[in-house]
Every structure is written in structure tokens, then in C-alpha cells.
Amino acid sequence: VKVKIPFGTKYLDAIFSVPEKKPTYGVILTHGAGGDMNFPHLVSLAAYLASRGVLCLRFTCKGLNVAYRTKAFKAAVEYLKLSEDYKLSGVFLAGRSMGSRAAASVVGQLSQDDDDGFIQGLVCLSYPLHRPKLQSKLRDEDLLLIRCPVLFVSGSADEMCGKQLLEGVVSKMKAPKKIHWIDKANHGMAVKGRTIDDVMEEINAQVFSWLRENVQLEHK
Questions:
Q1: Does residue 95 contact residue 124 with C-beta atoms inside 8 Å?
Q2: What is the rounded average pLDDT of the residues 55-80?
Q3: How far is CA 25 from the centre of its chain?
Q4: Is 211 helix (H, G, I), strand (E, B) or coil?
Q5: What residue spans define the domains of the chain?
Q6: Bridge partners, residue 58, by sequence
Q7: CA torsion sign, 1 to 212 to 180 to 147?
Q8: 207 pLDDT exceeds 50?
Q9: Helical spans, DSSP H, in the chain
Q10: Which of 6, 141, 151, 199 is the one with CA 20 to 30 A from 124?
Q11: pTM of the entire structure?
């Protein structure tokens, strides 16, 4: 279902992947610095989750500024929260690369405010912890503010997320957290000798089983 999400004077293009049965929980997904909501990883994850009873809302926001992307993500959260069509008990925010930074920023800000518990958790796919080859400057400030459960899915060979560095940041986080490493995957989740569909199947299954651990989802 295609929708337009009001965002200031503009609108964000978005698509709902709707399960057959009335969903209780949803996931809001967005893309990285390049691409849009039709990025294959997002399409694959949305279809996988919807087929297992989780509503998925993915949206496009082209801004390359994280603060702007964070505002867009907040607009998407507000939109889903007030939606008459889907009355959800809660949502998980999810993003790929820069989209996961925006998602983390929203969750971090809402953890500071008196949150009403609508946001259940955060899924970071290929979280860009640092720029390539610039490991001294970590983008971890939002992560350290978060209190809700967080799942990281990262490639062990991600040039923007050193394995030991992420493990170090995660050890400092107060939130319940889990990292799933995709062996030998780079930032784009490409692995020599594996098809992208095969890698996506691993990622999708991990995300779904983690969601299920955190909320009562009936397994279809």
C-alpha cells in the first residue's frame, strides 16, 4: 500500500507491507545514504516480516544530513502512531547504514523524553560506526543514550564498522543488546561465494527471531 507521510511542507514517499492477519507490531524501515525505500535489502526484509505477521512501513528520505533524516524518521513514527488503519501496540525502528544512524538518533532522543513505550526496540543493519579508515572518531553518542533493546546486524569485514570497535561500544551500552555478525560481509553485506539472497535470508531470519524474543509474536 503506497502512502505519503506529511513532513513539514513536503511528503515522504512510503510503502506499507501488510500482513494477512491484523498486526499487533510494526517495523519502520529506511535506507542508507544512497538508494531509497526500494533498496533490495529493505524490500526483502519487509516482505519477510509481513509474511510472518509484522506490519512494515518503509520510507524514502533523500537528505544526506543525519539531523534531517532523524526528523523524517520522527514524522514516520508519528504517522504510524496516529494511523487509524493500523492500531499497533508498538513499533521497532530499523535502518540500513545512515538510516540506522537516524533510527538510533530518534530512539536516543525519545529515551531522554518521557517515552510512552510505543517504540519497542531498534534494528541497525550495517551501522556506520565510523568513516572508512577513520576509526578514531566513533559515531556512538546516540547508541549510549538508548534504553530499549537493540539488534546490530553487521558484516565482520565492514569497512565502516570495525568488529572490536562495535563490540567495545556495545559493552558500554545500558540497553539490552545483541550483535549478529555476518561472516566476511562488507558494508553492503556482500560476501564472496554467497548470493545476496542467501545473505538476506540469514539477516531476515535473525531480525525476525530477535523481534520475537522481544515481543509476543505468534510464529506463523
A1: yes
A2: 92
A3: 14
A4: helix
A5: 2-214
A6: 15, 29
A7: positive
A8: yes
A9: 40-50, 66-81, 98-112, 141-145, 163-172, 196-214
A10: 6
A11: 0.94
Which cell is 33 given?
545514504
Q: Was domain 2-214 assigned CATH 3.30.1460.10?
A: no
| Residue 33 contacts residue 97 (beta carbons within 8 Å) | yes
93-119 b/e with 16+ CB inside 10 Å = b? Answer: bbbbbbbbbbbbbbbbebbeeeeeeeb
Cα–Cα distance for residue pair 197/194, rounded to 1 Å: 8
Integer Cα distance of 184 and 130 in angstroms: 18
Residues 71 and 68: their CA atoms lie apart, in Å, by 5
Q: Mean pLDDT for the chain? A: 91
129, 190 contact by CB (below 8 A): no
CB 137 within 8 A of CB 160: no
| Nearest C-alpha neighbor of 113 from the set 74, 153, 61 | 74
Residue from 37, 42, 35 nearest 14 by CA: 37
DSSP 8-state class, residue 200: H
Q: Using CA atoms, how far apart are residues 48 and 59, in angstroms rounded to an integer?
A: 17
CB atoms under 10 Å from CB of 2, counted, come to 7
Running DSSP on this structure, what letter comes out for residue 219? Answer: P
